Amino acid sequence: MNRLENFHESRNDLLGFLGSILEGVVSEDHLKAGSDTLKKQLRPLTEAFPFLDLCYVLDADGRQIGPNIVGKRCPSALGREGDGEDRSQRPYYRQARDSWGSVLTPPYFSSATRSLCVTVATPVRDEENRLLGIVVADIDYEQVMTLLEDDHRRKSIEPFFKGVYSIFSLGLLFVSLGLAIQAFHALGQVFGRAAKLSDTTRSFQATILLTLALAIFDLAKTIFEEEVLLRKDVRRHSATRRTLTRFIASILIAISIEALMLVFKFAITDPTHLTEAGWLVFAVVGLLIGLGVYVYLGARAEILLTHSKAREKQHATPPPPDGRRVGNPVRMKP
Predict the structure, then answer these.
(1) Name one GO cellular component term (predicted).
(2) How far is 142 from 144, CA to CA, in rounded Å?
(3) Protein fold of 3-148
(4) Which of 204, 308, 327, 332 would you label with 168, given CA atoms 20 to 30 Å apart?
(5) CA gyration radius for the chain?
C-alpha cells in the first residue's frame, strides 16, 4: 500500500490526533500579546513531539505572526524566517478560515526536511466565532504514522532484517551465477568438435541449468525488491499476497520450462517416461489454478474489509449540521 492510500484510510484518526495537539494552545490573549508570547506557547510542542517539524501562527488575514518555531530535524536558519510572510493563498489557510475545527492537508514533499509531511491548521475563534488567527504545524508523515500504528519497535529493527535479506539475495545471486557458468560450459560442449549431432544430452543439460539460473536470479530479485527496496505495510494482506504471487510466479516459470524440457527429452530418448513428464505439467496447471484462486479470494476479502471499515467510520462520525467535513469546533475565551 502506498503512502497516499495509507493517508486516506487513516485521515480521520490522524486529523483527530494532530488537531488535539494544537487546539487550545493559542488563545485570543496570546494573539494580542505578540510573537514572543506565541513563541513561548509553541516551543514546548516542538520539544514534546519529535514529529513536529515546523510551527507558526497566522493572523485572520493569513499573515504570519513572528518567526517559525522549528523542530530538531529542520535547519536552525528557518527559525529566523517567516515573520510577516503572507500565506493567505495557501490551501490550509483557506480551509481553516472556513472551518470550525482543525483541517489537514494530504502528504506533500517538504523542502525543509526533504521528506513527506502533512500540514495541520487549527483556527482560533472568539465566543462569537469570529476568526482571530490560525495555528499551523508541519508534521513528518512517516514519524506520526509510525506512532499512530504503534510500529516503532518494528521500525527500529527493520534495518537488521533488510541487511539479512540483502545477504540472502546476494547468496542466491552467486548461486544463479554459478549455474549460469555451468550452463554455458555445457553449451560450449554442444558446439565442440567432439560433440555428436545425435547426442542431445548436453543441450538439455544447458537448458535446464539456464532455466534454474534464471529462476533463482528472479527469486533473488523478488526478495531484494520486496523486502529491501519497497515499502511494505505488514498489516495489509495485499503486501503478503503480492510477495507470494511473485515468488510462486517465478517457481511456475521454472517448473513449466523444466516440464517442457522433460517432455521433449523423453519423447526423443525414452517415450516410456512421458507419463511422468505429463504429471509434472498437470502439477504446474494445478499450482497455477490454486494461485489464481488465492489471489482472487484474497483481493475480494480485502475489498470487503475496506468497505466495512468505511461504513463503520461513516456511522461513527456523522457530518456537522452545516454539511462541512471538519474537525471539532474551537472557541477560545478572551
Answers:
(1) plasma membrane
(2) 6
(3) Beta-Lactamase (3.30.450)
(4) 204
(5) 30
For residues 18 and 52, give the distance between their C-alpha atoms in angstroms, rounded to a whole number: 10
b (16+ CB within 10 A) / e for 230-261? eeebeebeebebbbebbebebebebbbbbbbb
- Taking only the tens of pLDDT, the chain with its 334 residues reads 456 667 877 888 888 888 888 888 888 888 888 888 888 888 888 888 888 888 999 999 999 998 888 887 777 788 888 888 999 899 999 999 988 889 999 998 887 778 888 999 999 988 888 899 999 999 998 888 878 776 667 777 888 989 999 999 999 999 999 989 998 888 887 776 555 656 667 777 788 788 888 888 988 888 888 888 876 665 666 667 777 787 788 788 778 877 877 787 777 777 888 888 888 888 889 988 988 898 888 888 878 877 776 676 666 554 444 434 444 444 333 3
Identify any residues that bridge with 57 across adjacent strands, giving them in sequence order. 65, 135
Neighbours of 214 (CB within 10 A): 18
DSSP 8-state assignment for residue 324:
-
pTM of the model: 0.59
Could you tell me the residue ranges of all domains in the chain? 3-148, 153-316
What string of H, E and C letters represents the secondary structure of 51-107?
CEEEEEEEECCCEEEEEEEECCCCCHHHHHCCCCCECCCCHHHHHHHCCCCCEECCC
CA atoms of 45 and 175, how far apart (whole Å): 53
Q: How many CA atoms lie within 13 A of 104 on its CB side?
A: 26
